[in-house]
Amino acid sequence: SIVGSFIGQFVKLWENFKQTEQECGQLRSQLREKFNLSNIIGESPAFQQVLKAVRKVAATDTTVLLLGESGTGKELIAKAIHMNSPRKERPFVPVNTGSMPADLLESTLFGHVKGAFTSAIASKKGLFEVADRGTLFLDEIATMSLDTQAKILRVLQDRKFMHLGGVQELQVDVRIIAATNQDLKAMVERGEFREDLWYRLAVFPISLPPLRERPEDIPALAAHFARRAATRFGLSLR
Predict the structure, then answer these.
(1) C-alpha closest to that of 124 among 85, 165, 95
(2) Contacts of 210 (CB under 8 A, 6+ apart)
(3) Could you tell me what percentage of the chain is helix, strand and coil, using 3-state DSSP and rounding each to the nearest 5?
(4) Which value, in Å, is the radius of gyration of the alpha carbons in the chain?
(5) CA 44 to chain centre
């Protein structure tokens, strides 16, 4: 009967929903374990100072600025901050701001309404909306245009923004963690980065030391990657 068929479909959908919910819970649990600070490799005094700063700031809603050369693990630390914060059940959304032109970056961050530009055939949410009540990680923030910087500043100040081509203000609750391998203070002095945004981002700066400044961590890191490679290829380490 139609009613029986409907009930069967509903039960199946409910079972699929519960399975997906269980899988998401397992994934969140695995992520919390992975980014537990005790599982992040680095026993050197320099890296322990980084983890101490992460423990201090993670429980707050403070904006964080991660400073360090490429390859120092800025996204890893950003994820650790998020996964040890009250926002850990909400999305962690990373975006490399240096990998796209200014107009595409603004559309990606703030979304757009239908017809905002030639290829905008439908309205689209931006990453600020996706990251609502979670964390947005802005990597390579020094590459952003001054216009985009101004819009980021407004979100930090008022928690408000508009879609590209839109007229309605949207409210959002997002924690921002930014990262750069550039000297932002020097860029401010050259007029390449907004001073007011720099002050907003640098509320809690964390400098990540390169591996050459913490050679004590090399043996533990080498052992970790060897174990991971052995697991991947089905080998045993002796």
Answers:
(1) 165
(2) 68, 69, 71, 72
(3) 55, 15, 35
(4) 21
(5) 25
Locus of tokens 């980065």: 193
**CA torsion angle 214 216 217 218 (round to 10):** 100
Phi-psi category of residue 90: left, alpha or beta, with phi > 0 → left and psi -120 to 50 → alpha: beta
148-174: per-residue pLDDT in tens? 999 999 999 999 998 888 888 899 999
Contact of 80 with 37, CB cutoff 8 Å:
yes
Give the model confidence (pLDDT) of 178-232 as tens digits. 999 999 999 999 999 999 999 999 999 999 999 999 999 988 888 888 888 888 8
The answer to whether 135 and 85 are in contact (CB under 8 A) is yes
Element (H, E) at 136: strand 135-139
Location of structure tokens 């390859």: 71
State the Cα–Cα distance between residues 60 and 133, nearest whole angstrom: 13
Q: Model pTM?
A: 0.81
Tokens of 229: 């490679």
